[in-house]
Structure to design on (234 residues):
C-alpha cells in the first residue's frame, strides 16, 4: 500500500524559507512515471496546488508562487521536497504531498499524505 | 476567488440525492480539461472520489457519480448517508496564458 508522509518544522518565521519533505513508501519514485505534487490549504480556505515534480526532476509550479517555490526529488531516499522562500503569514496552511495517477502533473491525485500544519509567525 | 466555481454549501436529508456543481470556462473545462473530484473530512487526507469526469476508483460506492458538459461538471450523490458529510472539491487544468492546475473553492455538504 502506497503511503506518503510529510515532515518538517511546524513553525517558520516571516521572511524565512519553509522546507518540507515527503517520504514515500510502498512505491519507488525512480521506477514510476508518476508525477508527485504539493498542495496546501490555508485555514478556512480551499485547496491550492503548489507544484509537481517527475522522477527525473521535471517541475511545474503554480504561477502565483513560481518565484518562491522549489520542488526537488531525491530518488535515493525515495523522497521529494518543497521549499517556499520569503514566507509571510499568508503562507500559513496545512501542506499535503500527493501522487498524480499518471505521467502528467494534470492527472488526478490518488494518494495523499495526512498533511502537516505550518504556521508562519515570529 | 477560484477559477472553478462551486456552491459554498449544499444539504440534504438521509436517502436523498444532492448534486454539486463546478463551473469553469472555455480555458479549462470547456477546453476539454478533465475534472476530478475529492472528498475531504477535516483533519484527514483528501480522498479521490471521481477521476477523469465520470470514473470511480476502486472502493468508491456507486452512489457517487460525475458528469461533465460544456464548461461545467457535476458530482451527484444518491442515497445520502451521514458519513457523506464532508467538503468536496473539483480539480482541473486551466490552459490560459497562466497555465495552472486549479481546484474549485470547495462545497460543504451537510446531511440534515
Amino acid at each position: 500500500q502506497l503511503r506518503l508522509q510529510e515532515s518538517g518544522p511546524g513553525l517558520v518565521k516571516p521572511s524565512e524559507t519553509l522546507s518540507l519533505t515527503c517520504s514515500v513508501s510502498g512505491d519507488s519514485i525512480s521506477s514510476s512515471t508518476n508525477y508527485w505534487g504539493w498542495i496546501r490549504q490555508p485555514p478556512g480556505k480551499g485547496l491550492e496546488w503548489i507544484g509537481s515534480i517527475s522522477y527525473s526532476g521535471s517541475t511545474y509550479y503554480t504561477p502565483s508562487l513560481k518565484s518562491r517555490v522549489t520542488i526537488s526529488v531525491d530518488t535515493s531516499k525515495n523522497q521529494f521536497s518543497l521549499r517556499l522562500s520569503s514566507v509571510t503569514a499568508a503562507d500559513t496552511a496545512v501542506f499535503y504531498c500527493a501522487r498524480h495517477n499518471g505521467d502528467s502533473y494534470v492527472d488526478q491525485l490518488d494518494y495523499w499524505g495526512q498533511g502537516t500544519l505550518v504556521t508562519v509567525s515570529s | 476567488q477560484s477559477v472553478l466555481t462551486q456552491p459554498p454549501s449544499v444539504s440534504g436529508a438521509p436517502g436523498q440525492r444532492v448534486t454539486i456543481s463546478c463551473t469553469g470556462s472555455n480555458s479549462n473545462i470547456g477546453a476539454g480539461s478533465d475534472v476530478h473530484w475529492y472528498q475531504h473530512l477535516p483533519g484527514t487526507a483528501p480522498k479521490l472520489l471521481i477521476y477523469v469526469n465520470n470514473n470511480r476508483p476502486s472502493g468508491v460506492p456507486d452512489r457517487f457519480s460525475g458528469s461533465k458538459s460544456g464548461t461545467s461538471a457535476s458530482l451527484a450523490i444518491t442515497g445520502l448517508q451521514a458519513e457523506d458529510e464532508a467538503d468536496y472539491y473539483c480539480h482541473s487544468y486551466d490552459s490560459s496564458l497562466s497555465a495552472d492546475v486549479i481546484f474549485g473553492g470547495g462545497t460543504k455538504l451537510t446531511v440534515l
